[in-house]
Here is the input.
Amino acid sequence: MPTKITAIYENPKSPEAFEAGHQEQIVLAKAIPGVQRVGSAKVWPKEDGSPTPAYRVLDLYFTDYAAAGKAVTSEEASAFVAKAFELATGGVRLLFVDVEEV
Here is the structure.
């Protein structure tokens, strides 16, 4: 089954600094062995002006769990994770998810 690794970035201390480094994060994600596709999305601001529940998400798609599991042991994945934690001044969660076709 297709597997996705999702990085959920909490609201950073400086959105400008996060955005300045985000393109490098995407380049690092695309370099991870076995990644088929990378998707990035910014969370819409809330209409009432309160903080969003997260700032951005970054999705890395793999053919299956085995491919994703192997990929995370690579040097490229280590560089990606290091950059994720550098950018994530508000915190980051990394999830492995089973992509269900509907």
Summary: The beta strands are 3-9, 37-42, 56-62, 92-98. The first strand starts at residue 3 and ends at 9. The two ends are 13 Å apart (CA to CA).
